[in-house]
Design goal:
Elements lengths: L7 H4 L9 H12 L4 H11 L3 H10 L11 E6 L2 H5 L2 H12 L5 E2 L5 E6 L11 E3 L2 E3 L4 H12 L18 E3 L12 H9 L1 H11 L11 H10 L4 E7 L8 H8 L1 H15 L1 E8 L7 H13 L15 E6 L9 H8 L23 E5 H13 L1 H5 L9 E8 L5 E6 L4 H8 L4 E6 L5 E4 L2 H5 L13 E6 L4 H15 L5 H19 L4 H17 L3 H5 L2 H9 L1 H7 L10 H10 L3
Parallel strand pairs: 1-3, 6-12, 7-8, 7-10, 8-9, 11-15
Antiparallel strand pairs: 1-4, 2-3, 4-5, 11-12, 13-14, 13-15
Helix pairs in contact: 6-7, 8-15, 9-10, 12-15, 19-20, 19-23, 20-21, 21-25, 23-25
Amino acid sequence: MHPEHDISDILARYPASQGALLQVLRQVQARFQHVPGSAIAALVLQWRLSHAAVRSVVSFYHFLSFEPRGRYTLYLSDSVTDRMLGSEAVLQLLSERLGVQADHTRADGLVSIHRTSCTGLCDQGPAGLINGRPLTNLTLRRADEIADLIEAQAPLDQWPTDFFEVHNPVWRHQLTLSHPIAPGQALARLNAMGPDAMLAALRDAGLRGRGGAGFATWQKWVACRHAPGPRAITCNADEGEPGTFKDRMLLMQWAHEVMEGMTIAALTVGASQGFLYVRGEYEFIEPHLREVLQARRDQGLLGPSVMGGSPGFDIQLHMGAGAYVCGEETALIESVEGKRGIPRTRPPFPVDRGYLGLPTVNNNVETFVQVAQIALHGAGWFNAHGTPASRGTRILSVAGDVARPGLYEVPWGVTVAEVLSDCGAQDVQAVLVGGPSGKLIDATQLPQRQRQISFEDLPTGGAFTVFNQTRDMVDVARQYTRFFAHESCGFCTPCRVGCGQLLETAERLMQGHASQRDIVRLQETAELMHRYSHCGLGQTAAHPLMDVIAHFPDQIKRKLAADEQAFDLDAAVVNMQEISPP
């Protein structure tokens, strides 16, 4: 090994197994600003991995690289809301001041600038990351100061602390955010009631997964419990959907409740190992999470014996490395195993064969917090809120053209109009519920239909993005389509090729070159992707364009080539609505 690329101390911290590979590669990248060939050779020799296994992981994750990045590696969020707040002007200024183009490393190796899909800081953008630390509320003046500090090679610890401040404004509290739990309190209640009563409480509470799919939590747990053991628990903290940032607040301020819920799941289904999978963009939360994990071990709430009982349960923190698709539960499990995050074919489902082939319960951060609260307060306390099919509350990440971006805990069944009033939205043109894979509604649907946030009407993983009348919705759809094309894992042809075709159509629309044939081809591509894509990314990638065609046909027609603007979109709109979910 090249002496400058010695990684023996890194390897010594981990067991020599594939499952630790991604964590090792993250540390190698941080030390050398890339993954050098000598480090790969060491992994091959000492851990008996193949070159292909290591290189395939490096090539899959956005935050890993074979080529050197800057000693100051700067990522600027390229999400729609960051662009609305002026991120492109910030990027241009930084590129000019530092003498480096986007997605390149300066010749002297001092700095590299990259676009990244979303940093989970949509409520305080333009935002970015520098060597894993968050940068919030970026202005042109602040960008100038950052350029000066980088040129002076000032250590990050000497930078103004307010550059890195992350706030978690909560504008509305309801059930969950008004009832913090002391460590061990819900576990003591579980010990008193037993696992059967816990499952009954989840059933009676009507808790459905808060990740978007909305599967009944108790049914998932029962299926895992009845599968032959040993078993595992995974917590999905990989909220990569643009516009979603609720998990950031829960991980920063409610980590004990998250881990309490995971432990309740483990003791209920009989699992001995757990993994908290956190998106790579939240690296700045990692030290806090490790402190909480250690505190819980010291208190006897994790480890060989939980609260003096048997069997034990412990949680490993597993950091991602920039891959939106790892938010899909089977892709997440593949990543926990140290592989590329390629979604698996289902069935079998994780409750039958998940982590290392073991029956696995996978829920997201908000779900586990509410599990702990149901254990402590009971099913009636929880299901007194919401609608018949959507019990309890939902934490919304509100961003975009609003006076008060941030977090809002609302009862399921709240109307979109009420949320808009709460956040101070004015002159609303459209609302995107659930992120780009969710549902776009236009302002005409608000007073007449009283659209509501619920599984019966508008289910959501938490994102709630508002666009006022000044926004070009075709351009918004193009940006979201670019996001899907960038984040496609490339595993299946319908998604890999289809995302490229969708983006090409969106670009042609914006350039004024699109024709009737492009609209027809878009419809055909969307239907094929919806039916045949391997996972949810490809199945929903056409939603932004389809919804804009359905709800804003006039904006589409104005973008068509001059000799095509008389095209009647009515038939196309009908077909789009048939493909798009309600």
